[in-house]
Amino acid sequence: MKIISYNVNGIRAALKKGFIDWLQAADPDVICIQETKAHKEQLDVTEFENAGYLYHYWFSAEKKGYSSVAIFCKEEPKHIEYGTGIESMDFEGRNLRVDFDEVSVMSMYLPSGTNSARLDYKFNYMDEILEYATELRKTIPNLVICGDYNICHEEIDIHNPKMKGVSGFLPEEREWLGKFIDSGFIDSFRHLHPEKQEYSWWSYRANARANNKGWRIDYNMVTETLKDKISRAYILPEAKHSDHCPIAVELDL
């Protein structure tokens, strides 16, 4: 199973930049989208269906044009879970899960901490999602949580590890991500590439992408029960529909 995660920073904008052609060429079995910034009814979903993704699911924020996640599948899941049931998380449309027989896949968009109020919200979300994922694994042990975590874990994951006091690389955020992994997850990319320095997000400022001054803040986190099933994990920087790029994990199920 090939799973791709992609923060598209607006699905309608990505479509205008050739997203459908790219999707058909990449050919994932499941793609988890974050930051669609759209509700399903605002889109011509036949574009996705004609590309081979007859099964597409959308969980959008109450606020139009904001946040929101989606998952497109080639095969029909046996169950779809919209949100987490936790109102403080769900009103911004940040979690969507599809369950198959052998694995469940979640698209997650963890908040950024752009100011003090949003940073407080981010920390609260971090606490709640860790607790939620811990409980979820009791009934769904084979789980992949894909998405934009908005945190660099280690110094190798950021072009300038001397950055201080910036949300996304705060000591408390990095510590939490370590705790999340230690709770029973594997960072699939780092698991297979312990020394590789690649990024999944670049600022639009100062020509950051052209100079590869990026951050690795997108992850395909795989539960330890699937450790021996991880066959490939890689980043796709050539896809340029967003300030992020897609990341992929392949599981030998």
From TrEMBL:
Record-annotated Endonuclease/exonuclease/phosphatase domain positions: 4-236
SUPFAM superfamilies, sorted: DNase I-like (SSF56219)
Keyword Cytoplasm: no
UniProt-listed GO biological process terms: base-excision repair
Site (Important for catalytic activity): 218
Residues at which Mg(2+) binds: 7, 35, 148, 150, 243-244
Residues under site feature: Transition state stabilizer: 150
Cofactor binding note of this UniProt entry: Probably binds two magnesium or manganese ions per subunit.
Database matches in Pfam families: Exo_endo_phos
Active site residues of this protein: 109, 148, 244
Cofactor(s) required, per the database record: Mn(2+); Mg(2+)
Record InterPro entries: AP_endonuc_1, AP_endonuclease_F1_BS, AP_endonuclease_F1_CS, Endo/exonu/phosph_ase_sf, Endo/exonuclease/phosphatase
Record has Magnesium as a keyword: yes
Keywords assigned: Hydrolase, Magnesium, Manganese, Metal-binding
Site feature location: Interaction with DNA substrate: 244
Single GO MF descriptor: double-stranded DNA 3'-5' DNA exonuclease activity
Assigned protein family: Belongs to the DNA repair enzymes AP/ExoA family.
Protein name per its UniProtKB record: Exodeoxyribonuclease-3
Organism: Tenacibaculum gallaicum
